[in-house]
Predict the 3D structure of the following.
Amino acid sequence: MVNMKLHRKNYLWSALCLLSFGCSGGKSPSGDTDQIELLVIQPEHFHAALVQKYKNTDIGPEVYLFADTSSSAEAYQKLIQQYNSRDDDPTDWKVISYYGNDFLEKAFVANTGNVVVLAGDNQRKIDFMAQSVQHGKDVFADKPLVINEEGYNKLSELFNANPAPLLYDIMTERYDIKNLIVKSLLNDTKFSGGINKDGSEAAVQFNSTHHFIKEVSGKPLIRPAMFYNTLQQGEGLVDVTTHYIDLVYWMFSSEQVIDVSKDLKLDSSFRWQTKLLKSDFERSTGLKQYPSMLKDAQTKNGDLAVYSNGKMAFSFKEIPVSIAVQWKVESLDNSGDQFSAQFDTKKFRLEIKPDEKGAMAVFVVPSKANNQFERELRQSLQSIKDLPGLDIIQGKEGYKIVIPQDLYLSHEDHFAKVLAQFVSYRRAKGLPDWEKSFMLAKYYLTTQALAKAKTIEYEKN
């Protein structure tokens, strides 16, 4: 019965090739055309769908989807249907899907799109990327692109090819209004005095807490079982950390090529587990039993122990940096995922943290009393291009920056911004050298941190 189904499926696929778009087997025109046709491969993470939350005049409505089974793409398909059927600003995506064990081979048989979207199995992602490049496709991929040293070596080979392919990871945090403000204040060295490299603590500190059970777009997020397999998903040291490392590069070396041998030094790295009950796994995935891939993560009690947490200390251009990422099962107080950051300059400390109402905000704390500080802060904020209306409120320790509501973008909106940047690079026929160096330096650091990490017991906040 299974063979008959596969035979019928392959017959229908062959007919679709002949009638709709041919099965030439040749390379996609890729950058030779401005019109983008999306090719979505094994979209096991919901970020694949966020790329399509809004219409984009540069992207055609037909999307080609290839996956091993329909369940692998179920969450993706549901979000696309939700976007197509919503009352406000509905999309009009037409998904042409193929499911089968030979999905990767079939994905490149025909002229099925020229931009590959990847979000899912982070272990296989680098091989999907290599196949895409081999067949003349550009790649727009969710982070992380690689999760170990072997993957990094493959990524380095791809980027060192001539001509270099267009590979771009989705670094959304560059478009967060708070990070834009922090970057501007840090680089106004007349006001900040420059970063303080000689403090007793790291000059730059990132701390974030995430949750396995959460909601996205108002609905419970169903995660694939793969998300709990760190051999496929990647450990905490190589996943979320990519965003914060990218911010460090972007804030302190914007549009400057990074030399890994001179600009980076890893000082220490650590990893530890998060424990989940079997009932937590069921709620998160909808599955009653663990798949075989999670055998090594199971405890004697039948629960899961996942190496999702990590912290690292490194220096970038002699700036000491600390990054810590922690995953919990669920936000019991409904506060959701949490993030904080601190930047010490010679004249003040910048903090990104929740305000008195729980909303994320930017705070500026002067290092010492200065009657001119408020005036200088206002002048620095007013000089930021494209961010009008910024104001400040003085508190007990310093100043809170008041950001007009219309300057805020949602997480989903950040995806649209990154997509627009990708389209811009595609029109320019490739990434600038500094972007390539950012990506290689970022994944060099994460994979080295994992390779050299010490395993420790659970750490309290």
